[in-house]
Amino acid sequence: MNDQTPAPSDRTRLRRYNWLARYDRETIDAIIDASYVCQLGYAVEGVPIVTPTCHWRIADHLYWHGSSASRMLRAMQGGTPVCFSVTLLDGIVFSRAAFNHNVLYRSVMAFGTTELVPEAEKREVLEVFVNRLAPGLWQAARAPADQEWKASKVIRMKLDEVSAKVAAGLPDEEESDLAATAWAGHVPIWTTQGAPVPDPKLRPGIGIPDYVRNFRYPGARD
Questions:
Q1: Which terminus of the chain has a smaller tally of CB atoms within 10 A, N or C?
Q2: Rounded CA gap, 14 and 66, in Å?
Q3: DSSP-derived pairing of the beta strands 102-116 and 81-94
Q4: Cβ neighbourhood burial of 14 (10 Å; 0-12, 13-18, 19+)
Q5: Alpha-carbon gap, residue 34 to 209, rounded angstroms
Q6: Chain CA centroid to CA 44, Å
Q7: Main-chain dihedrals φ then ψ at residue 156, nearest 5 degrees
Q8: Neighbour-count burial of 74, counting CB atoms closer than 10 A to its CB (0-12 exposed, 13-18 middle, 19+ buried)
Q9: Contact status, residue 96 vs residue 178, Cβ threshold 8 Å
Q10: Gap between the Cα atoms of 101 and 93, Å rounded
């Protein structure tokens, strides 16, 4: 059921299936934080492009990074309109009627304008990104060399225009279809996580550190 939080803008307001809309930041932030990969839609010289990339969130801003030579980052560093989206698939719905087959999912879409993160701040937010993967990972790994810092850029976008869409229930079926012999229901889908696999080049005697042993993908289930 739709929550009582108003849509932040007209273009984030869901019109079709508006009962699936969620505008509260608790739901939105949870979906963003449960995924490591997003899709960024933008235009370069009038040509639409959608790029998958890793993202992270700090308070009211989304961040992503890449090579200084990246066409995407070059296009975005001066301020570019962007559509951010992320989707988590939760299940497949089977209906008695072909028209009602569906999926269960949680998704977020955000609109905004990008900006280049200043050099002094870039180091702080990249540390947050690495430690988001596993707390303590930044401190355990070799620090970036000066050339590596120069070769990377970080872009951010404020979460001003954002909405979520959550399909968590089965579709309403026509009363006349309930007498059909076709099976109806859903198949839950979730990500699972395996045991750590050591690099074959790992030096002898190096055990699994706590940040690997305790790693939990936010969207995974046991």
A1: C
A2: 32
A3: antiparallel
A4: middle
A5: 23
A6: 23
A7: -135, 160
A8: middle
A9: yes
A10: 6
What the block records as the tokens of 129 is 């990104």
Distance CA 141, CA 200 (A): 18
Q: In the block, which residue shows the tokens 């947050």?
A: 128
Residue type at 131 in one-letter notation: N
The low-confidence residues of the chain, meaning pLDDT below 70, are 1-3, 222
The partner residues of 116 in beta bridges, in order of sequence, read 155
Q: Residue 156 has which token pair?
A: 């951010």
Structure tokens at 1: 């059921």
Beta bridge partners of 56: 63
Beta bridge partners of 112: 82
Tell me: the pLDDT tens digits for 40-62?
Answer: 999 988 899 999 999 999 999 99
- Work out the number of other CB atoms within 10 angstroms of the CB of residue 5: 15
Q: Taking Cα atoms as reference points, which of 84, 92, 82, 83 lies closest to residue 31?
A: 84
Report residue 30 as tokens.
């949870």
Q: For residue 131, what are its two tokens?
A: 């430690």
d(C-alpha 111, C-alpha 40), whole Å: 10
Cα 153 off chain centre by = 19
Alpha helices in the chain (DSSP H): 25-33, 71-76, 119-133, 137-140, 146-150, 210-213
